[in-house]
Amino acid sequence: MVVVQASKLNLPYPSLSSPHITSLLFEPTSLSLALMHSDSTFSLYPSLSPLSLSSLPPPQTLIHPPSSSSTFLLLQNPNNSNPKVLFIVSGPHKGGSQILLRFYVLHKMTQFVRAQVVCTQKDLSFDHKFGALVDCNHGVSVRLSGSVNFFAMYSVSGSKIWVFAVKDVGEVAVKLMRCAVIDCCKPVWSISVSFGFLMLGEDGGVRVFDLRKVAKGRVRKSRTLNGVSGDNVVVHCEAGDCGSKHGSGKCDGSCSGYLCCKNDTTCVSGISFGQGHGCYSFKQDKQRSVKLKQEPCEDGVYFVAFKGKELETSKPRRKILVKAISLEALSPNKFLILDSDGGLQLLHLSRPVMGSNITTFMQQLPNGMKVQKVAVLPEIAARTQSVWVSDGYNSVQMMVASDMDIAVSENDLNEIKEKPLHITVGLTIFTGEKIQDLTPLATNAILILGQGNLYTYATS
Question: Quick one: CA dihedral 194, 195, 197, 202, positive or negative?
Answer without folding.
Answer: negative
